[in-house]
Amino acid sequence: MNRRALLTSLALAPVIGGCRRMAVAGTPPPDLPPLRTITPGAFGTCVQVANLSDPAWLDLARTHVSQLTPEWEMKMEYILADGLGRPRLDRADRIAAFAHDNGMALHGHTLIWYAQGQEAFAGLDNAAFDRAFDGYIATVAGRYRGKVRSWDVVNEPILDDGSGLRDCHWSRRYGQDGYILRAFEKARIADPDAVLFLNEYNLEGIPAKGNQFLRLVERLLRAGCPLQGLGTQSHLWIDIPDGQIAAFIHELSQFGLPIHVSELDVSLRTGDRPDLRGQQERLVRQTARVTELAEAYSGLPPAQQFAFTTWGLRDTDSWFRRDDKDDGKDRPLPFDAFGQPNPMARALAAAFRA
Ligand code: XIL
């Protein structure tokens, strides 16, 4: 049995072998060490203010997590909901205070994203647009200077099929590379100490998109962009061909920059295609993908192991369990609804301890 198959079988044994122990909040199973103690760099997860009043989430986070990423309350959509003139920073402040009080690092997410800001910036002339763009970054990145370890300065600039970069309200004003360069330059001024990341999804699963990202990184670095970290969201799916994930992480590492696995989850759903496989078979595939990613991350030089972040802790915290396709059975995250380890948690522990 090869190493990956062995890790997979170890990860699955407690699920296949016996019934799941009932939940007792705050008592990590003896065979699962706190993930923050074994993950190179940091073990992170996303957070919403609502989590901060959930005792079970607090127990799990304080046991396993050493870094937090605000899931949506540090984004432009929330901050500018009342318009450009009245930024709402209350919830980002609460998350920053919680991270500080609990000895957790904070990864800012995200300053400039194609998906948000259209309404707030609509109708501005060029001068006003520039003032608003630069002012937003100065206000938000400036406010959390000394509180965040890092920022996703720009999120998801690449087209889904990898054929090029997205057109959006930001690129229409500054150009496709231009808005990214401007955002990083303004973020650098606002917070000279934060590690500045470019963040993207589906890089491992869609080679054309991964290649487009690598070419963009090369162009930005050549242009003198203060880009200091590369975020691969890793919203993986279970049927990504063996070896493809590790191959991309290897290519990404060639720039010598810190790498953040920034939003890992692996849905068991397989889109609209009927899937006759049972959940256990899909969990085996999921475990193989997670093991491949965690091993590739563990194989990076320590200076490039920035953080390994899952997009939620418990299956019921997942955005997959909030969408209209949810069948109530998906298990995309390290822990189940009761805070007990899923195969994913055991696969991570096996890969990081190996
Ligand atoms: C998602 C959140 O999980 C949702 O709660 C929110 O409604 C939309 O955004 N890539 C990203 C994240 O960078 O910000 C997205 O988070 C998921 C995809």
Name the hetero compounds present.
(3S,4R)-3-hydroxy-2-oxopiperidin-4-yl beta-D-xylopyranoside
Uncertain ranges: 10-25
CATH architecture heading: Alpha-Beta Barrel
Strand content: 5-15%
Q: What count of helical segments does DSSP give?
A: 13
Residue share in helices? 40-55%
> Looking across the biggest beta sheet, what order are the strands in?
1-2-3-4-5-6-8-9
Q: What gross morphology would you assign?
A: globular
CA radius of gyration is: 20 Å
Order of helices and strands: HHEHEHHEHHEHHEHEEHEHEH
Q: In the CATH hierarchy, what is the class?
A: Alpha Beta
Q: What's the number of extended β-strand segments?
A: 9
Distance between the termini: 16 Å
Biggest pleated sheet: 8 strands, parallel, barrel
CATH superfamily: Glycosidases
Average pLDDT rating: 93
CATH topology: TIM Barrel
Number of domains: 1
The SS-based structural class is alpha/beta
Topology:
Blueprint: H1 3-17, H2 35-38, E1 43-47, H3 55-64, E2 67-70, H4 76-79, H5 90-101, E3 105-113, H6 118-121, H7 126-143, E4 150-155, H8 169-174, H9 178-190, E5 195-200, H10 207-222, E6 229-232, E7 235-237, H11 244-252, E8 259-267, H12 279-298, E9 305-310, H13 343-353
Parallel strand pairs: 1-2, 1-9, 2-3, 3-4, 4-5, 5-6, 6-8, 7-8, 8-9
The structure holds (3S,4R)-3-hydroxy-2-oxopiperidin-4-yl beta-D-xylopyranoside.
